[in-house]
């Protein structure tokens, strides 16, 4: 079957959901997520999305995240998994990489400080 020469941009498939970061008596955190009621295409990029469209879509997704009661849980889930695509907890994949890099640097600094303290106490 022949395909039309110019098809509209298709939204990328949403990656399968991994296990939630935590569950409580009320159920998994993502059951309360505001994004469950919005179109997934807002949170995941279509292929070959122009930069201006991507930025506008990401800002719209972040506005949804800003009013979500489980934004912190969502963000931590995306940082702990780590989720490589989409807007999670109000952060894009690039922003999550920055947060993770900062966390790693802080952990290294804390380990160095603890080691220095142990050496000072021993010596």
UniProtKB/TrEMBL annotation:
PANTHER family: TRANSCRIPTIONAL REGULATOR WHID-RELATED (PTHR38839)
Gene Ontology terms describing biological process: cell redox homeostasis; negative regulation of DNA-templated transcription
Cellular-component GO terms for this entry: cytoplasm
PROSITE patterns in UniProt: 4FE4S_WBL (PS51674)
Region (Disordered): 1-27
Organism whose genome encodes this protein: Streptomyces nymphaeiformis
Subcellular location field: Cytoplasm
Record-given protein name: Transcriptional regulator WhiB
Signal peptide positions (record): none
Superkingdom in the source lineage: Bacteria
Residues annotated as domain 4Fe-4S Wbl-type: 34-98
Cofactor(s) required, per the database record: [4Fe-4S] cluster
Entry keyword set: 4Fe-4S, Cytoplasm, Disulfide bond, DNA-binding, Iron, Iron-sulfur, Metal-binding, Transcription, Transcription regulation
Biased composition range(s): Low complexity: 1-16
Coiled coil: none
Function: Acts as a transcriptional regulator. Probably redox-responsive. The apo- but not holo-form probably binds DNA.
One GO MF term: 4 iron, 4 sulfur cluster binding
Residues engaged in binding [4Fe-4S] cluster: 35, 65, 68, 74
């Amino acid at each position: 079957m022949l395909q039309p020469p110019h098809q509209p941009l298709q939204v990328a498939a949403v990656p399968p959901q991994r296990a939630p970061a935590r569950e409580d008596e009320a159920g998994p955190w993502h059951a309360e997520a505001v994004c469950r009621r919005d179109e997934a295409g807002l949170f995941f990029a279509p292929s070959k999305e122009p930069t201006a469209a991507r930025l506008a879509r990401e800002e719209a997704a972040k506005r949804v995240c800003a009013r979500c009661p489980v934004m912190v849980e969502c963000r931590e889930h995306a940082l702990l998994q780590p989720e490589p695509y989409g807007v999670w907890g109000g952060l894009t994949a690039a922003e999550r990489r920055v947060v993770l890099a900062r966390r790693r640097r802080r952990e290294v600094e804390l380990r160095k400080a603890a080691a220095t303290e142990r050496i000072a106490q021993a010596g």
